[in-house]
Design brief:
Distance between the termini: 94 Å
Length: 306
């Protein structure tokens, strides 16, 4: 959980972000998301090397409007930051206000006022979950009607009734709703990129609700003609990429080399001095050093002077 209203918390998250990933998923309201992206732009966490995926479950003022433009002093920074955003949203038939939904919309608005003390603004669309719930009851009614047309159908058999919700479609309010083999409603999803020329999100990838496949619906122009980056940290998962390493401190290396050289030079120098002295001494068969008389030929003492 992230409180995007707190700049310190945003900056702390953005500092950690490039160390562990290059793709950030955001699930939340549109207003704090815009604030988060403005903070990301301020610390150079936007651009072609970063991807921010935001989910818009449905277009409604309850979750805000995922746009960069608020006509304030942050619009320019938000515009630059939103070029690193991918918008993921469903293309759900339940979100389309068909004739049936339009017919019931006044009733739903009155119920919302009396039951929940909420007043819709003029021109405000009803919450999509209201229509979705209404369409669900339509599905049930159609399944029950089909079951009644079967002789000796056992309505106490839940397994048999569930078969009427699997691998099929329901047509309600002029829209087709598809169910998979498990009776789950399949929804078409679209992924959109930010067009830096128009300032709008443009769909480029679509998940087909029937085939459950990803389809390219348009060429993507990611951040001024660049390609989408791979899903790995800029410095690699282990942070060992050479370009990201801090400058190496070689002072200790010089100290170690100097110490080793000194250690090696001491015996070498001692041996060289000994060889020089021995060479000079071989010209004489004896040498008096003030303390003893030495036989240099045999390297032994001849007479000790006391």
């Amino acid at each position: 959980m992230l409180d995007c209203s707190k700049k310190e918390e945003n900056l702390r998250t953005l500092e950690l972000f490039p160390k562990i990933s290059r793709v950030l998923l955001f699930f939340g309201h549109a207003e704090p998301f815009r604030t988060f992206m403005i903070h990301a732009h301020s610390v150079n966490r936007t651009g072609k090397d970063y991807v921010y995926v935001v989910l818009e479950p449905y277009h409604h003022n309850i979750i805000g409007n995922f746009t960069w433009q608020h006509f304030d002093q942050h619009d320019e920074a938000a515009y630059e930051a939103f070029q690193s955003v991918l918008l993921l949203a469903p293309d759900d038939p339940a979100l389309h206000q068909g004739s049936e939904a339009a017919h019931f919309s006044r009733k739903w608005r009155n119920m919302t006022l009396t039951a929940f003390n909420y007043t819709y603004a003029e021109g405000e669309m009803f919450v999509p979950t209201v229509a979705s719930s209404h369409y669900t009851m339509d599905f049930l009614a159609m399944a029950l009607k089909e079951s009644m047309e079967i002789d000796d159908f056992d309505f106490a058999n839940g397994t048999a009734l569930a078969q009427h919700f699997m691998n099929r479609s329901f047509q309600v309010d002029g829209e087709d709703f598809f169910m998979d083999q498990y009776g789950r409603r399949q929804v078409k999803w679209r992924c959109s990129y930010f067009d830096n020329e128009t300032g709008q999100f443009v769909p480029f990838l679509e998940r087909n609700d029937k085939l459950q496949q990803l389809l390219d619906v348009a060429p993507v122009v990611w951040y001024r003609g660049n390609i989408l980056p791979p899903n790995e940290p800029i410095c690699g998962f282990l942070g060992f990429r050479k370009a990201c390493r801090p400058p190496e401190d070689r002072t200790w290396v010089s100290g170690v080399v100097a110490t080793v050289c000194c250690i090696l030079l001491i015996p070498v120098g001692t041996y060289a001095i000994w060889r020089l002295c021995l060479k000079q001494a071989r010209s004489k068969w004896w040498l008096i050093d003030g303390l003893r008389l030495l036989d240099m030929a045999h390297n032994r003492s001849v007479i000790h002077l006391r």
